[in-house]
Amino acid sequence: MSDVLVVDVGDRRVAVPVAHVRAISAAGFVTPVPTAPLPVVGVTQLRGQILPVLDVGQPPRIVQPQDPLLVLEYGPARAALVFTRLCPPDEAAASDGAPAEPPLERLDVGALFDLVRARAGAP
Amino acid sequence: MTDWDADELRTLRAFFLDEAEEHLETVARELGALRTRSGEAATVTSLLRTLHTIKGSAGSVELPEVARAAHTFEDRLIELRNAPTTTEAALPSLEAALAQMRALVDGARSEVRAEPITALATAGEDGAAAPRSDRRAVERAVPGAEQTVRVEVERIDELMDAASELVFDRTRITRRLLDVETRAQALGDGELVRLVAAVQDDLEGLRRTSATLQDRIRRVRRVEIGRLFARLVQPVRELARKEGKEVTLSLDGEETEIDKALIERIAEPLLHLLRNAVAHGVEPPEVRQALGKPRQGMVSLTARQADDAVEIAVADDGQGIDLLGVRRALVAAGRVDEEAARALDEPSLYAALFEPGVSTRVAADDVAGRGVGLDAVREALARMHGTVSVTSHAGRGAAFTVRLPMTTAVQEALLFKVGGHVYAVPAARVHETCDVTLADLELGEDERLHVGERVLPLVRLGALLGVPPPPGASARRAALIMTAGDLEFAATCDKVIGPREIVVRSLAPLLSNLSLFAGATISGAGKVQLILDVTRLGEIARQGVHHDRPARALGLPRVLVVDDSRSIREAASLILAQGGYAADVVADGWEAWELLQDRPFLALVTDLEMPRLDGWELIARVRRSPELTGLPIVVVSSRAEATRARVVAAGADSVVDKPLRRKALLDAVDRAVSERATIPARR
Q1: What's the confidence (pLDDT) of residue B566?
Q2: Domain carrying residue A72
């Protein structure tokens, strides 16, 4: 479990590989991007860098400025994953492999970015 | 026999090998994706494009074995595309093909590295010009040999970013100073007011200095496009020789400056267009003679500065685009039936040339014919926010004009509001703003705006961006009158804020393909504001996106998928992508209904039981709507058999069982679309 951060995203519990997490930050103002496909809910900026904000919750919510984000990196691409709560290690460990509620899903950051890229690819 | 001297060939191969390595990495990554997303059509198409590029380039740098290997690889992929269920079985042979290509590229690289740099010593000793391929080594080895310093583009970008921050900082100081000025005036403190005025003067000085700094850095980034043109001459000459054609390539506008970062990225698209001009455009000498034309065909490559863009045109004096051939290719590719093909006008046929899988050449060969050339050109240009347009005259030739925006880090922009959000466009592209009322709008088949005596094509930004006007908005709107190329058009918004100096930033790599946006900027309050791509808006205005050619005009035909189950949405989305459709997904009928009001869709795929607005009500609303009544609807249901009769009676075209099966869903969508093809999906 030490190689992941476990977060709740709406009603989902997601394990995010630490190797792809660059920062934890507040969302700030999230600007919607019309025509951007789900799970992109908008863009925000972190120290001048523009980041797509992704919400894998079901259904996606309106992100508030104080909502926390994980800044993810995969190759040259970065994006921010909005989450509702960071699970403490003991709680996260209890979810690992046990029949937990909600079940723990491991986030494949590369696949998530591929999905966004593919969906945004059609102009 | 070769037209290259050894140094030229080595230089070109070095360029090619660097590119090939990147392409092979892409191929490897996409093969991996194929393994996990079995048979995905989009991945296969993307692989075909990459291999096509390698093939064409390898031939140009006289590595025929690499070109042949790429061709064989393409053959295997095309087999897979035609029989996608065999992905698992096909993967070992695809991976073997990749390994073979890697070995060939590695072998070629070893040969290039093994060749001695013979000119280096000579150049250092007597000052004679070194061959081009060795100049870089000379510059590194002989300090001061030229008054230049090589700097990575990224370093220049960092410098530009830092200089741009000055604008941001200055804007913030200006805002705060305004607050101080207001307070000082309220307090009646004359000394403080004078101090504020002095600081404002200093800020103006800072503005001038930072503008100069940015301009100087910008110049560092620019190079003359002639450097690129020179590299393209030889591949064209070589191709003409292979094709048995007599071609003169004329160059013009080589002094036009272009961003260094673009020059490498534009090379391949231009080479594609030049290859097409030679292979498809210019006729063989004997044919030209019989037609009364000079035996020697003419291909021209020209560049010019056009407002805030650079235009590069590839033109030939050949046969022009074979419109009949394009119609046949569209029918052969299953895009339209013969009757619909006959009805397509010239602009639609030109647009079809850039779609995947459409080629007018009957037999595939090393140069062209698999329909993976022009769509790659369009995609590459779209990634640079560039566009390509076509003109053609039967028997007299064709011209492809590439337009690349010259984005600069700091721009004068016009800010405006749509749906409560602030957007920007480059101020240079807006030549007028005005207030309009509903009476000025001509809605319907082709939307237009009356501005005085003029009637302009119209883009309603609220509808395009899918945002309703803010609460309490009046019937009055503001309009921006803009130009894109030779088109003057209007775009309505809620309110014009005014001109501002902004720092342009990339929208983020993951979203760089969203063609509607040219970038983003950050307001003084830290909010991201999106910059709209005026060229794209112009295209939309010209095509009339709200009306009779909706989805295809914007790219892949879009299908709206509505289901409250995420896994069904994902599955449907993937299946539709494999069938050549782009899917937008929403979780309930209400969201779908809202989206249908604002965007055109080719078809609707919907569940029945959903929160807020269920599928039954959604279908009923669509069928009652005069604008949407012809929209093809496919229902997905776990009780398909039991509900089929009721669903069809409610207005759906067909029902598909859950769990979703690829063939069933694609067949149903294809059939519904084709059966309703004569009914416009949206007014």
Answers
A1: 64
A2: 4-121
Taking only the tens place, the pLDDT of each residue in B339-369 is 888 888 887 888 888 877 666 554 334 444 4
Question: Within 10 A of B646 (CB to CB), how many other CB atoms are there?
Answer: 12
Whether A114 sits inside 8 A of B509 (CB atoms) is no
B157 touches chain A (CB under 8 A): no
pLDDT tens digits, residue range B508-566? 878 877 878 888 888 877 789 999 988 888 888 877 644 333 333 334 457 888 987 76
Scanning B83-152, the segments in alpha helix (DSSP H) are: 87-114, 119-126, 132-141
Nearest C-alpha in A relative to B42 = A118
Six-digit token string for A107: 């986030």
Strand B633-637 and strand B603-606: the pairing is parallel
Cα torsion B550, B556, B559, B564 to 10°: value is -130
Say if B584 is an interface residue toward chain A (CB within 8 Å): yes
In one-letter notation, the amino acid at residue B164 is: S
pLDDT in tens, B170-208: 777 887 888 888 888 888 888 888 898 899 888 888 888
Query: Which residue in A has a C-alpha nearest to residue B576's C-alpha?
Result: A119
Q: Where are the alpha helices (DSSP H) in A60-108?
A: 89-95
d(CA A73, CA A80): 9
Rounded mean pLDDT, B614-632: 87
Between residues B36 and B276, which one has the greater pLDDT? B276
| Chain A contact for B661 (CB, 8 A cutoff) | no
* Spatial contact of B620 and B577, defined as CB atoms under 8 Å apart: no
- The C-alpha angle B442, B497, B546, rounded to 5 degrees, equals 30
Residue B93 makes CB contacts below 8 A (sequence gap 6+) with B76
Structural domain count, chain A = 1
Which residue, chain included where needed, has tokens 């003109």? B391
What is the C-alpha to C-alpha distance for residues B339 and B411, in angstroms, rounded to an integer? 48
ipTM of the complex: 0.90
Instruction: Please give the structure tokens belonging to residue B38.
Output: 């079995």
pLDDT of residue B314: 95
Q: Enumerate chain A positions whose Cβ falls within 8 A of a Cβ in B.
A: 28-29, 31-38, 40, 43-45, 48-52, 58-59, 76-79, 111, 113-114, 116-123
Element (H, E) at B585: strand B582-586
The per-residue DSSP string of B20-67 comes to: HHHHHHHHHHHHHHHHHSTT-HHHHHHHHHHHHHHHHHHHHTT-HHHH
| In the predicted structure, residue B637 carries a pLDDT above the cut 60 | yes
8 Å CB contact between B149 and B189 = no
Where are the alpha helices (H) located in B142-280, listed in sequence order? 153-187, 190-221, 226-243, 260-276
| Token code pair at residue B90 | 């096909």
- Given a cut of 70, is residue A105 above it in pLDDT? yes
Q: Measured between beta carbons, which residues in chain A are less than 8 angstroms from residue B464?
A: 34
- The domain spanning residue A110 has which CATH number? 2.40.50.180
Closest approach of chain B CAs to the CA of A18, in angstroms?
Answer: 20
Separation in Å, CA of B88 to nearest CA in chain A: 20
Mean pLDDT score, B406-433: 83
Contact B584 A29 (CB under 8 A): no
Spatial CA neighbour of B281 closest among B238, B312, B236: B236
A35 to chain B, closest Cα gap in Å: 7
Token pair listed for B280:
């498809």
A11, A29, A50: best to mutate for the B interface, most B CBs within 10 A: A50
B260 interfacial to chain A (CB closer than 8 Å): no
pLDDT-based confidence at residue A70 (cuts at 50, 70, 90): very high
pLDDT, tens digit (0-9, with 9 covering 90-100), for A43-62: 998 877 889 999 888 666 77
- CB-CB neighbors (< 8 A) of B36 in chain A: 111
